[in-house]
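Q&A log
Question type: sequence-to-structure
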Amino acid sequence: MRLKNLLASCLIMMIYFLVGCGGSDAPQEREVFPVSGKVTYQGKSIPDASVVLHPVTQTDDGIPACLPRGHVNESGEFVVSTYRQGDGAPAGKYRVSFSWQGSLKGLDEDQEDKLREKLPRKYRNPKTSGIEVTILKEKNPALEFTLQ
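Response status: OK
Response body:
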């Protein structure tokens, strides 16, 4: 049962990443600012990992909440997307969560479905990851996450 829940969570994160939050016909979007960075685990890049920013404080402006997220490339770098690929994140304070099942290069969907999470559980939950960032209403310095 726990494996099914984990797989369902990963599938939802992948769907949000692929389709974004509102698409181009979304009625309202918060202003976003460019955000990028690099993440490593035990000193190595973690290709195909997900980085998700969870707002610490919720706004009550009537605009649907979207979780800014990034997909880690082969060199460990990512660009954050909220509404469209690479658009950035709204300004504010965020807790960060991570998910990684290893490189997906050359795997079909059935093989991907059988992969287990490779990061410690604490990193998968924004409340326990211990990592917070603040996105500014200006050019943001590159984020750097070193997971142990």
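Response note: The radius of gyration is 15 Å.
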